[in-house]
Design goal:
The complex is a heterodimer of chains A (206) and B (295). By secondary structure, chain A is an alpha+beta fold. Helix content of chain A is 29%, strand content 37%. Chain A folds into 2 domains: 3-39 and 107-200, TATA-Binding Protein; 41-106. In chain A, strands 1, 2, 3, 4, 5, 6, 7, 8 and 9 form a 9-stranded antiparallel sheet that branches. In chain A, a hairpin with a 2-residue loop joins β7 and β8. The longest helix of chain A is centred in the last third of the chain and has 17 residues, at 185-201. Chain B has 6 helices and 6 strands, in the order ααααββββααββ. Chain B starts with a helix and ends in a 6-residue tail after the last strand. The chains are: A alpha+beta (206), B alpha+beta (295). Chain B: It is found in: Nucleus.
């Protein structure tokens, strides 16, 4: 898989979520994009029961690009432990109901159309938390390249081309320490989780 | 060769005759049936039989006629060794004859196409092999680019590899003599290059995450474009008299794709044009350009 950047697209006062998606779809089409199906990334968060020592949080994420994989990230204090596993892991978590309980209200989802522009993959995601609209996330993947450092400038140019000034000149903070490494699917998940955290903190739409 | 058509008609005549004789005897064997009715059933049965026999008679005449049209072959067929196939008694090998005929037809066709292709290619002046057409009196020994000792090829390629820091070269000889080179440039691309001696015959460029094989193109548009440009470069750098220099120039050119995704175009100063990075490298200066911006 290629290098992927997950970018938050700020909402303006007078536009609704579907209007923003439609507006961005038009721009992507203007670049000669072809629609290539839908996509979905979802995140469920489990909290450990108070009887089991210091609180721990497990985030379970699914990405439609890797349908046979479940990504989970365990947070305990400052430490993070990622785990990549089979979908069966979801069932295992349900069995652990006495230890980890799922907070239904915090279920996050980003879904929407998926486009191909030459070797780029563009996904326009509507973010919802427990079915409430929270904002718009744009994911851009450059599939031929594996090293973020090699193609960040190129990706930035591409994203600023159709998203405008909301794209910063620096890569996402999560990627900054990993610019020379080979890009993994888990890196995309981490970026989504970082974004979802921001959405959870925000009181209104972002 | 004898024409097959009369033989076919004769065979189909015999088939009709056999079938109709079968029908006649079946009717005779069944005797008087209920659909002949009650009144005068014997005469009706006799009439039916008579009709069937007339048909058989006509068929027999047809057969005789078609056999008369056949011409016996003048001399006995010479089947060569394949004649012995009729002596085969193993059941599973009796079908060999039709396969033999099939493959004979194939080789015949291949022969025909080869001779046509040869006639075409001998007129084509774009051949890359260095042939001395002038009948010079003093014959100098030519340096041939496609008939080089394997040790020499290895030496040339290893020397070049040492000059190019980001390039990783792996020499393979799947068919003993000629080199297939697996090249990777940085963590950007992989290429597979087929040599004939020291002459570059074929190249496919693919992504670093893709597997290498000589015949399938990359999934990515960028690398398909680079493959196309590499073919142009092979032609551009081709030097029949100094094959090692041409290989060196070509690999240096390929090495410059190390910065395929990070270099901006020298023409327009941008990274992307039509959502593609600069896929063209100038042959002399190795400067990156977009397909649309190249000078």
């Amino acid at each position: 898989m290629g290098v992927t950047i997950v970018q938050h697209y700020p909402m303006t006062e007078n536009r609704t979520g579907p209007q923003v998606i439609e507006f961005l779809t038009k721009r992507v089409h203007a670049m000669g994009a072809a629609q290539a199906g839908p996509f979905l990334v979802d995140c469920e968060t489990y909290n450990s029961a108070p009887a089991f020592g210091p609180p721990r949080t497990v985030h379970l994420l699914n990405n439609s690009e890797q349908p046979a994989t479940v990504f989970s990230i365990l947070e305990s204090g400052q430490k993070q432990v990622p785990l990549v596993s089979d979908p069966l892991f979801m069932d295992l978590m349900k069995k652990l109901g006495s230890v980890y309980t799922c907070k239904q209200q915090t279920r996050m989802e980003a879904k929407g159309p998926r486009f191909e522009v030459a070797d780029f993959l563009v996904k326009l995601g509507t973010v919802t938390m427990n079915a409430n609209f929270k904002g718009v996330l744009v994911e851009v993947e450059y599939r031929p390249c594996l090293v973020p450092a090699a193609c960040w400038e190129l990706l930035r140019e591409f994203m600023q081309g159709f998203l405008g000034t909301c794209v910063p000149n620096q890569p996402p903070s999560y990627l900054q320490n990993r610019m020379q490494d080979i890009y993994q699917p888990l890196d995309t998940i981490q970026q989504y989780l970082d974004q979802f955290r921001e959405y959870r903190k925000a009181v209104t739409v972002r | 060769m004898m024409s097959v058509e009369p033989l076919q008609t004769a065979l189909s005549c015999i088939r009709t005759l056999r079938s109709n004789v079968g029908v006649a005897f079946e009717a005779l064997g069944n005797g008087i049936r209920s659909d002949h009715g009650e009144e005068g059933k014997e005469t009706k049965f006799l009439f039916e039989l008579q009709d069937l026999l007339t048909v058989v008679n006509n068929n027999l005449r047809d057969v005789e006629q078609s056999i008369n049209n056949l011409q016996p072959p003048h001399n006995p067929f010479n089947l060569g060794n394949s004649g012995f196939l009729s002596h085969e008694y193993a059941q599973d090998r009796q079908a060999l004859y039709s396969q033999l005929v099939q493959s004979y037809k194939w080789t015949d066709k291949v022969h025909e196409y080869c001779s046509l292709a040869h006639a075409q290619l001998s007129q084509n002046s774009l051949t890359r092999s260095y042939t001395n057409t002038s009948s010079a009196k003093r014959r100098k020994i030519q340096t041939s680019s496609h008939n080089v000792l394997p040790i020499h090829v290895d030496k040339v390629i290893n020397q070049i590899e040492r000059l190019l820091p980001e390039m990783n070269v792996n020499i393979q000889r799947p068919f003993a003599s000629n080199v297939i080179l697996h090249v990777s440039v940085g963590r950007v691309l992989k290429a597979i290059i087929a040599f004939k001696g020291l002459l570059i015959e074929w190249i496919i460029v693919r992504g670093f995450s893709e597997s290498l094989d000589l015949w399938t193109e990359s999934r990515f548009k960028v690398f398909r474009k680079v493959t196309e440009n590499a073919h142009a470069a092979v032609m551009r750098f081709y030097m029949p008299t100094m094959p090692d220099v041409s290989v060196k120039n070509f690999l240096t050119w390929l090495h410059s794709f190390n910065t395929l995704f990070s270099d901006a175009c020298k023409g327009c100063g941008l990274h992307l044009r039509n959502a593609m990075p600069p896929t063209w490298r100038e042959f002399r200066t190795l400067e990156p350009y977009h397909e649309e911006c190249k000078p």
